[in-house]
Amino acid sequence: xxxxxxxxxxxxxxxxxxxxxxxxxxxxxxxxxxxxxxxxxxxxxxxxxxxxxxxxxxxxxxxxxxxxxxxxxxxxxxxxxxxxxxxxxxxxxxxxxxxxxxxxxxxxxxxxxxxxxxxxxxxxxxxxxxxxxxxxxxxxxxxxxxxxxxxxxxxxxxxxxxxxxxxxxxxxxxxxxxxxxxxxxxxxxxxxxxxxxxxxxxxxxxxxxxxxxxxxxxxxxxxxxxxxxxxxxxxxxxxxxxxxxxxxxxxxxxxxxxxxxxxxxxxxxx
Length: 270
Known about the structure:
The protein is an alpha/beta fold and about 270 residues long. The protein has three domains: about 1-85; about 85-125 and about 170-270, Ribonuclease Z/Hydroxyacylglutathione hydrolase-like (Metallo-beta-lactamase, Chain A, 4-Layer Sandwich); about 125-165, no CATH class. The protein contains eleven helices and 14 strands. The strands form four sheets. The chain has a seven-stranded mixed sheet, with helices on one face. A three-stranded parallel sheet has the order 1-2-3. A two-stranded antiparallel ribbon has the order 7-10.
């Protein structure tokens, strides 16, 4: 999960998400609309008798803030909460497992803030079952073949890997950038991502307001996407003053055509 505003667990239940499968939460910055839902979510986990660890990745101050609430409201939890401190001013690897790597993206906001870059790790090649059976390849050799090895028959014939396997889907990359003023410093980090989520709080007629509050306009979000050569842009974090969000979308598309509106409870395919 990225950020955890008030009402997060209600939305998860409305979507039918399996709430107990959540293992890692990444908090971009310490403004209420990005973290006020944490204590309620953790309390609900306790009532559900969760046992799995919960990992929270955020700047160090969040642990200090949460400790008071946890000691008061959640002193008897059945699971462990592990805080991983993130330096919002550095671009660095902050988490990885066998399938994914997560990097911080320094952003430009009124308080220390960072985005997150999620990168899938390359997957093994897919076995062509008919070829494995044809050459009678032992099961114990298949893992190495999936990793790119050729196969040598008993007669010494070399069977090239590309006759035994097909390439996997290319690894996907997703970048999340909110809240932030326009900043070209993020472009080398997010360049070429499959999907970029970037805030578009204001329209261009409120550019001065955006500058004062360290937010971005819709046009600026499109400009970042264009300069970073991303494949798809999703915009969000709209000011409540905009009733018709199609106007925000139209303005963004003037700079980057492949843009989608971020909408509550909508699922996007990357």
